[in-house]
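Much of our argument rests on the idea that a fold can be written as discrete symbols. The record that follows shows the chain in one-letter code together with its fold in token form.
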Amino acid sequence: MTITVNRSASQHRQGPARPKCTRKDFVERFALAKEGDGLSRIAGRIFGLLLTGERDLSLDEIANELGASKGSASVNTRLLEQNGFIERVSKPGDRRDYYRISPDLFERTMSERLARWHRLHDVLEYGLTASDLSPAVRSRLRDFEAAHNNVREVIEAALAKWRTRRKR
């Protein structure tokens, strides 16, 4: 038996249709991706949950939604807040703290990435001063530094462009 599916021209350009995911699926994938950036999986889940949320969430709501302990949710919301990814807010007449995504999330995220790129640049420059490197190793470090600087410059330009657009 053959099944024929009609696709529009735009669907062909985009490739095969992607399976639909749920919010929970997205939050989990997001957590795995953020784990690669050095966050704990639970911090990534909290980040993903708030990123896809429609409203501010209390610590109890975050813990319940993710099936995490309140202590783990507390430690990781504090970490995300310290990194500028989320912010803590209060509501009049309510003693609980609530959390939401920082309004300038993209700028903060890119600034944090740029800081890491600058730290690596400093290490590469330092490494190039080593007197005991062979010419082949020194060349490899220079090539890596040049490629690294190209990407850093692109990110800096994109961030500057973003800041300019936001001011309009």
Q: What stands out?
A: The longest strand covers residues 94-101. The domain at 20-101 is CATH 1.10.10.10 (Arc Repressor Mutant, subunit A). The CA atoms of residues 134 and 140 lie 10 Å apart. The mean pLDDT is 88.
